[in-house]
Amino acid sequence: MKKIAFFPGDGIGPEISAAARAVLETVAELAAMPMQIEEGLVGGAALDAHDDPLPEASLQLAKTADAVLLGAVGGPQWDARPPAQRPEQGLLRLRKGLDLYANLRPAQIFPQLLAASPLRPELVQDVDILVVRELTGDIYFGQPRGIDVVDGKRRGFNTMVYDEGEIRRIAHIAFRAAQGRRRKVCSVDKANVLETTRLWREVVTEVAREYPDVALEHMYVDNAAMQLIRYPAQFDVLLTGNMFGDILSDEASQLTGSIGMLASASLGEGRGMYEPIHGSAPDIAGQDKANPLATILSVAMMLRHSLQQEEWADRIETAVNQVLDQGYRTADIASPGEAVIGTRSMGEAVVAALRAGAAA
Ligand code: NAD
Ligand code: IPM
Ligand code: MN
Fold first, then answer.
1. Domain Isopropylmalate dehydrogenase-like: where (predicted)?
2. What ligand is nearest to the CA atom of residue 278?
3. Which domains does the chain have, with CATH numbers?
4. Is 74 left (phi over 0), alpha (psi -120 to 50) or beta?
5. What pLDDT, in 10s, does the model give residues 153-173?
């Protein structure tokens, strides 16, 4: 029996994760895979119920599951709270508590959506990028941090810090991923200014010696942001620290047409967590407008990386391709003049395509 911890979260989280859950349940049924999905609270929903963005029961649920599926957290109603009392802290504590140091964010092009990208089709048609983002270190977790008062002026401070072990383990993930792809790693840093990332560059270079079949390139983050738009097809694996990867993966999502298409897997030595890269989209929450495909594609990553069900991961991706072939579009991926459907209908279309594929 596989146990899945299910955290819908806030904003569009419950809508997109309901669609993804239905896909997962359909797979469990069609594959006759015994599965128990247990729901828990994280983020603003947990703050409202328990005054804690990650109640102990939720952490325990995640720790005892085979995999975690998460929607998204956050929203304006919690923005004024002190840092530890924000929904985002629940997500960060979950990542840290499960030691999910490797965040894989594939930005791949669905040819049906070439027209949805803000870039010209010839620039994006050959794009296939895997962002490998370190997820449990960097300025997100470094101490000291805070806001204090110095000489009568308020001062905010954070600490960007990585030790070589943290860099080494994420670098190995990137090189191994590259070996199964086009054998190129571009490591992103700001080694011309920041000591933390100077060490990053040194350690990544050391690790690269163990992978002579993979070409390593270093790029400053400002240039990488520019190159992602100028010539995105040059990238294979993009290896980044926590903050640069957060920013560059949102940027990379636009190559595919929408942030609503980018799935992710967060991996460590144990169970994995699966979530779209986007947030809770408060501007469209509760309106049946959000694109659930990023979360549905995250379920495919769960089947591949945590449940050893490669074939069903492929089938979900095939089903997504089919609904796009059939012209189903949520608003974010629709071109002018194309008919638009809602979150629920998109989820149902994927389930129908899965069932049709299994019956064939
Ligand atoms: P966001 O990703 O929520 O939204 C940015 C824009 O993209 C919005 O216009 C939104 O409508 C659109 N968008 C996002 N997902 C979409 C989808 N599936 N379909 C269609 N459109 C989609 O980022 P934001 O507005 O900067 O943040 C909103 C809240 O989400 C904040 O509280 C933030 O902290 C939180 N957040 C959470 C996560 C997470 O849970 N992993 C990630 C990012 C942001
Ligand atoms: C993401 C989000 C999170 C991050 C926030 C909500 C903590 O932006 O998953 O990309 O910065 O990692
Ligand atoms: Mn982000």
1. 3-350
2. 1
3. 1-104+271-360 (3.40.718.10), 118-256 (3.40.718.10)
4. left
5. 999 999 999 999 999 999 999
